[in-house]
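Journal club prep — side note

Before the paper discussion, L.F. wants everyone to see what a predicted structure for a comparable chain looks like in token form. Sequence:
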Amino acid sequence: MDVEGVDIWRGENGEGYVVVSAQAADRFVIYDRKAPFAKVGIIQIGPNTEANIDGVSHTDGLTVSSANFGENLPSGLLVVQDDNNTAPPAFQNFKLVNWQNIETALDLNQ
């Protein structure tokens, strides 16, 4: 795995997740923060065609926060660097993902 970014989504009492980018695979691996650090899932950030936003490819870094950013982001936020963009055309940018979407996709119950 070509790791280019890693961060911790911090839950209560040492709970939470380690988020790791797998750059060449265009995906993100989520591990339990507590031993035995089991893999809880893999996600890809696909396109939002309605909003004309492409998916994430070859990320060079990420950060994640479990902070409550208000009613639209109560469980936090994942921010990833996106290497190449086709919609709209651009060299690189950042994609923001509501952590609740990740909880739903991976059936996480924090």
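L.F.'s comment for the group: Strands lie at 3-10, 16-22, 27-32, 39-43, 62-65, 77-82, 85-86, 89-90, 93-98. Keep this in mind when we get to the figures.
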